[in-house]
C-alpha cells in the first residue's frame, strides 16, 4: 500500500519508518525544509534508539522517502495519516487542533480517488467528525473516510511498541475503511496482535483514558511515597506488594519527581477540559494534574533540605535532564521546574544528560552543561539524579564521593540501595524510602 504521513515529529517519523519496514511505500511530509533535508541526508532530528538504522534501511530499499509538499504523496496514497502536533492551547488547556485542521484542508485539495484519512495525532473526542466536515466542505464530492488510529508509543521503546504492540485501536465508520486499515496492519494480524475496531469517537477517547489512567498510577505511587517517608515504610516494597496483584500490575508504580513528556501533561489537561465542556467533570484526573504540578516543585525542596536548608553560593550537580531516559525530549520534564527553583535558592547548577543537553540548552539559562557524570560532580556541593539513564546506575561511587565537596546524593529515581550508600559514606536521600 502507499502511505502519506503528514508530520515528521516523534509519532509521524517512527510510524512512517515502521510502516515502511512492514513493506508499504511511505512518504513522510513536513513543512520544515531543514528537517526534510536532514532526513534526506541520512540524519534523524530526534533521538530514538534504532530509528536511524530503520530509516536508513528503508530509504535504501526504496520504501521510504521525504518531501516538503504533500500534493503528490496524498494524490497517490491509499492511506493518509495526520500526525501533527496537538499542544495544549494557551489559556484554557484544550488541545490546539489548528495544525490538524490545516492538514485536513491540504489533504482535501490533493486527494484523488478513495482515500482513508487517519488521525494519528492525539485528539479530543469528536475531532474526527470535525476533520470529516473540513474535508467535505472543501471537496463535497470526494470519496474518502476519516479514521481514528491513536498511537501508544513509549519514547525510548517506540519501534518495539509499534511492531509488537499490546493492541492496535482503530475507530472506523465504514466497511471500506475498515478493510483498508485491516490490510495496512496485516503484518500484525499475522502476529496475532489484538486489533480493536471501534466507532471513531470511542477510539479517540480510548487514547485519552489510557494516558490519564497511567498518569494516575504514577501520581498515586508518588503520594504513597510521601506517606512512606512520614511513616518509615519503603515505597519500593509497597509498590511490589500491590503490583503483584494482577488487577493492579507492576508497571507505572515507580516513585519519582512526577510525570512529564509530550503526552501525559497535555492529555490529562485536555481530557479534563473536554469533560468539563460536557458537564461530566473528571475529578480524579483534575486532581492528578494538580498533584503532579506540585510534585515537581517539592523535589527542589527535597534537594535544598539535603543541603542543610540553604543552597546560597553552592553548586548542585544534576544528572539527567530529559523527562525519561532513552530520549532527548525535554517537554514538561521535571528538571525544567527543579533547576530554576534551585537557582532561585541561590545555587549554581552544572548538568549532564546523555542525549538531552542540546534541547535543554534552549530551555534553561545559566546552567553549565558538561560532557560526563564525573565532570559534573567535580567540586559540587551535592549531586542530584533527576533522570534514570542506565549509565547512572553503575557509577564509580568512590570516584563520585571523592569528586564532591560533600558526599551528598539526592536520588529522585531510587536507583541505588539505601544501606549500601550509607556504608559507602554518602548522605543519601531518595524518594519514599
SSE map:
Layout lengths: L1 E5 L3 H12 L3 E5 L3 H8 L10 H10 L3 E4 L3 H6 L2 E4 L15 H13 L4 E5 L7 H12 L5 E5 L9 H6 L4 E4 L3 H10 L1 H5 L4 E4 L1 H32 L3 H9 L20 H14 L5 H24 L8 E5 L15 H10 L3 E5 L4 H5 L5 E3 L3 H5 L4 E4 L11 H7 L4 E4 L6 H6 L3 E3 L4
Parallel strand pairs: 1-2, 1-4, 2-3, 4-5, 5-6, 7-8, 9-10, 9-12, 10-11, 12-13, 13-14
Strand content: 5-15%
The general outline is globular
In the sheet with the most strands, the strands line up as 3-2-1-4-5-6
The share of residues in helices is 40-55%
Structural class, by secondary structure, is alpha/beta
Tally the structural domains. Answer: 3
What fold name goes in the CATH topology slot of the largest domain? Rossmann fold
The number of helices is 18
- Taking pLDDT < 50 over at least 5 consecutive residues as the criterion, the unreliable ranges are none
The value of Rg in angstroms is: 23 Å
Termini Cα gap: 53 Å
> What is the C-level CATH assignment of the largest domain?
Alpha Beta
Q: Count all strands and give the number.
A: 14
The average pLDDT score comes to 96
Largest sheet: 6 strands, parallel
CATH superfamily of the largest domain: NAD(P)-binding Rossmann-like Domain
What is the level-2 CATH architecture name of the largest domain?
3-Layer(aba) Sandwich
